[in-house]
Amino acid sequence: MIAPVKKAKILVVEDEAIVARDIAAQVIALGYECVGIASTAEQAVKLAEHARPGLVLMDIQLSAGGDGIAVAANIRTRFNLPVVFLTAFAAEDVLERAKLTEPFGYILKPFSERELSTTLAMALYKHEAETRLRNTTRQLKALSRRVLEVQELERRRVAVELHDELGQSLTAIKINLQLSQRLKDKALIDINLENIRIVEDALQQVRRLATNLRPSMLDDLGLAAALQWITEQSANRSGFSVTFHHVRAQPRLAADIETACFRIVQEALTNIARHAQAHQVEIRLDRDRDRVILRITDDGCGFNLDEMRIRAVAGDSIGVLGMQERATLVGGELTIESALGQGSTVQFSAPWRTHEELM
Fold it and tell me: What domain range includes position 153?
């Protein structure tokens, strides 16, 4: 007998009262919860809407000419619930009609407890897997759409900075060079000094632009130095205090792990600055046996995790989706803990892979 992973809710649709009670008793004995028994199509739809079971056991032949297959199709379409058919009829035409509703099982009466247990367990597992896949697909679509939007916003920002800052600097140098041709030699020194100052400003603008895109210290000095830099930058801009703790004298991590850690911290600090109203933020980078553990904790206002997950699935929380995607791409896991008024914690865990292991 296959035991259910958790106590799922089962709706029994059967027009014979004695049979229905027996099925309900078997369902309960298997560790599930029977949320109701329906004998007609109308009752089945109403119970499915209000009880929202995890699965429907549907008799194909219902009283008063009711068609269980049509009811199953209605329930699948409206509520996206898995349906397992119960029937004493094995006619080929009935089976073909039943297939059109994409059932999660088909049990012929009479059936054994083991057969019912196996069918229910497999149907619930399949439905859960399909739900996860559907949510993942929706997240990926939302993430892809938002990534394109963010790319365009970033390109627009870089274009504006190039035009407004570097463009103005280069234009000033051009004007000075043209002016130097019309002035006497004694004015050339002042013009050249101004050109040098403008070029130095332009170089600073280029360095700042490049650093914002990807800090060179992440490649040159490693993750710890880059995280120390970004925490100081965030604290200066946002007004909250940031402390960073890490294990010193550790070998360099693989480039993809370092990049994932840096971007997750970057996104987490951005979210804290925008929404958390935090005073204290703590970042920890540790090693736990063969895994790297990154934790970002704040004492801000917190948020409702269920609502956040709904927004993430709908594509309204690109930051969370981005962090989850980065974690997945390097074989890691991302967990988020939060509650209203209790701050939040973002933890990233990934295999400990060093730079030398990839060479």
Answer: 140-213
- For residue 338, how many other CB atoms are within 10 A of its CB? 19
What's the pLDDT at 243?
92
Token pair, residue 186, equals: 């004694």
Task: Please give the pLDDT value at position 185.
Answer: 59
> Side chain identity at 343, as an amino acid letter?
G
Low-confidence ranges of the chain (pLDDT < 50): 1-5, 359
One domain, residues 348 and 220: yes
Query: Is 2 within the bounds of a domain?
Result: no
The per-residue pLDDT for 4 is 44
Instruction: From 109, 134, 159, give the residue that closes a domain.
Output: 134
Spatial contact of 281 and 272, defined as CB atoms under 8 Å apart: yes
For the chain, list the strands marked E by DSSP. Answer: 9-13, 33-38, 55-59, 83-87, 105-108, 241-246, 280-288, 291-298, 333-338, 344-351
Question: How crowded is residue 28: how many other Cβ atoms within 10 Å of its Cβ?
Answer: 12
Domain boundary among 213, 236, 265: 213
Q: What DSSP element (H or E) covers 176? A: helix 167-180
Q: Are residues 87 and 154 in the same domain?
A: no
How far is the C-alpha of 39 from the C-alpha of 44, rounded, in Å? 7
- Please tell me the total count of domains within the chain: 3
43 close to 16: Cβ distance less than 8 angstroms: no
Predicted confidence at residue 261, as pLDDT, reads 93
pLDDT tens per residue, range 296-309: 999 999 988 878 77
